[in-house]
Amino acid sequence: MITKEHVSKKFDADLEEVRTSVLQMGGFVVQQIEQAVEALSTGDEQAIEQIIKNDHRVNAMQVKIDELSCQIIARRQPTAGDLRMIMTVINTITDLERIGDEAAKIARMAKLIYDTGRLKVPRFIEIKHIANLTIDMVNKALDAFARLDPSVSAKIVRQDDEVDEEFRSIIRQLITFMMEDPRKISTAIEILFVAKAIERIGDHAKNMSEYVVYMVKGKDVRHISADEIEREVNE
C-alpha cells in the first residue's frame, strides 16, 4: 500500500515532500493557464510578460522535484508501490512542465496579437470554454494524485474527447472566419495556435490521470478507452 508507514520516518518525510512539491507545481501551472487565457482576453501587457517570465519557475520546479526523486531512488531503493509513486511523480512533472510551456505559448500569441494592433480577437468565447474544460481536467488529475484516487481517470479521458471535439469546432469556425474576412487571417491563425495549445494541455492532463491508475493499481492504462480504464480500475 502506497500510504503505509515506513520504518524510516525520514523516508516517509521524503515521499511527502515530493508529493507536496508536485501539487505545488501543479497549482502554479494551473495559475499560469488561467492568467494566460485572461491575458488573451484583456491584452494586459504586464500580465503577458509575467506569464512568459514565469515559465522558468516551472522549469526550476521540475528540476528540483527530479533531483528529489533521484535522491530517493538512490538512497531508499524503493520497491512496489513506493517505486510506482516515484515513477508517477517523474512522469507527472514532465507533463506539468509541458503544460507550463503551452501556457507561455498562449501568452506569446496574445503578445503578438496585441503588439501588432490587430482587430478584436475572434472566437474568444469558444477559446474560454475549451480552456475551462482543460483547466478542470488538470485540477481533477492533481486531485486524483493527491487523494490516490484512480476512479477519475476515465472521466478525464472522456473530457479529453470533448476537448478534441471543441478544438475541431474552433478550427471550422476559424476557417469560416478567414474566408469571410481575409484581412483577419493572421489573427485567426494565431488563435488557432492558442486553441491547439489548450488542446495539448488536455492531452497532458489525461496522461497525468492515467499515471495515477498506474501508481495505485499497478496497471498501465495508456492508449485504451475510457470504458476499459473503468474496468481496470474496478477490478
TrEMBL record:
Signal peptide: none annotated. Keywords: Cytoplasm, Phosphate transport, Transport. GO terms for biological process: intracellular phosphate ion homeostasis; negative regulation of phosphate metabolic process; phosphate ion transport. GO terms for cellular component: cytoplasm. Residues 23-109, 127-212 form the PhoU domain. It holds the Pfam family PhoU. It is found in: Cytoplasm. The keyword Magnesium does not apply. The keyword Cytoplasm applies. Homodimer. Belongs to the PhoU family. PANTHER family: PHOSPHATE-SPECIFIC TRANSPORT SYSTEM ACCESSORY PROTEIN PHOU (PTHR42930). Plays a role in the regulation of phosphate uptake. This is Phosphate-specific transport system accessory protein PhoU. The lineage of its organism: Bacteria, Pseudomonadati, Pseudomonadota, Betaproteobacteria, Nitrosomonadales.
